[in-house]
Amino acid sequence: MDGIIDLRSDTVTTPTEEMRRAMAEAEVGDDVYGEDPTVNRLQERSAEILGKEAGLFVPTGTMGNQVAVKLHTQPGQEVVVEERGHIYNYEMATMAALSGCLARPVRGERGLLSWGRIEAALAPPVYYRARTGLIALENTHNMAGGTVMTAQETKVITDQAHKRSIPVHLDGARIFNAAVALNTRVSELAGDCDSVMFCFSKGLSAPIGSMLVGKKEFIQEAWRVRKMMGGGMRQVGVLAAAALIALERMPCRLHEDHENAKRLARALAQLPAFQVDPATVETNILIADLSGWTSSQFLPRLKERGVLAGSTGPAQVRFVTHKDVSAADIDKAVEIIVDVCKGQGVF
Ligand code: TLP
Question: 111, 145 in Cβ contact below 8 A?
Answer without folding.
Answer: yes
